[in-house]
Give the backbone structure.
Amino acid sequence: MALTDFQRHLCRLVASHRVASGESYVAGAAALNEVLSSTRVSRDIDLFHDSDAALEASWEQDHALLVAKGFDVRVLRARPALVEAEIGQGADAVIMEWTRDSAFRFFPLVAHADFGLTLHPFDLATNKVLALVGRLEPRDWVDVITCSEQVQPLGCLAWAACGKDPGFSPAAILEHAARTSRYAAEELAGLAFSGEPPDAGHLSRRWHLALEEGRAIIDVLPPMEAGTCVLTTGGELFRGSPNQLREAAATARIHFHRGRLRGAYPRIAGM
């Protein structure tokens, strides 16, 4: 349960506005952890938009609906490309952000019962990898470990993430993450989980394994394909070990899928 009951109710309430727009969707940690059935609970809900016009329309519609349904809406920040508000009712409250984001992604938006529309899990995961190297937050570290184990190995995620931010190479992403991602149990204690919080030592061991395998994965892949999503020839995300990747690459059993505006599903010859 990555969403609280209150968060889920809010998301469902405004979900139809996401679908009607086609340019507005739930992203960030709330979406990621819900899609992956993670136990970490995000304290905010991020609504992303492909254009300024979509953001403005979304905020106006959502605001009017929330007020009509009896929610308290307290605007915390309002500026071009961002509205941040605290949404409350009774004893419950959550921060929601309406923000503009790049329409560049690897896959199209995905329908979701609670969100209306959300990013594909792979795009959620690559965004989270970039967040990890862009700020020092233990929540990003925990989420990236989950992504590496449930979406695609960390090396593949870093490989693709530099397609969204050409200022990083895959190796630079991994090394930056390795230098900065060290968190003590006391720092993790500030995070919210729906069940028993994870053990800091266990997380650290999983993280170092992901880094070790990630470096090996990057060494296998051809540099000219950096910034792409690594797929099997069946069109699935490659999830094998570095040795399995080496064998698949040697026998032309992997495919490189490039991102584009609003994303696309891969077309693989022979499928």
In short: The chain has two domains: 5-119, 136-261. The first helix runs from residue 5 to 21.
